[in-house]
Structure formats: structure tokens, C-alpha cells
Amino acid sequence: MADKEAQTIRDERIAFILLAVVLAPVLSVAIVGGYGFIVWMSQLILGPPTG
NCBIfam families recorded for this chain (predicted)? Predict the structure, then answer.
């Protein structure tokens, strides 16, 4: 039983490292980059913002 608990803890640590170190930064860059791309394309099509 202790071996199964140790395996579960190891799996949870690997999942946390994957989420915190890999997935969160990749998603952040993708979201910010996607938003910037949308703004850039909309300004190419519609023109610069007027104020």
C-alpha cells in the first residue's frame, strides 16, 4: 500500500511540474500572442484607432 501511495505522490509532483513549469507559461504566451495578433490584424483591416 505504501508503494502505491509513493507512486501517487510521484505522479502528482510530475503533474504539478508539467502544469506549473510547462503548460502555464505556454498558455500565457499563446493567449497574449493571440490577442496581439487579433489587434494587429484588426488595425490592418479597419485602420488605426482614431481619437
Answer: nitrate_rd_NapE (TIGR02973)
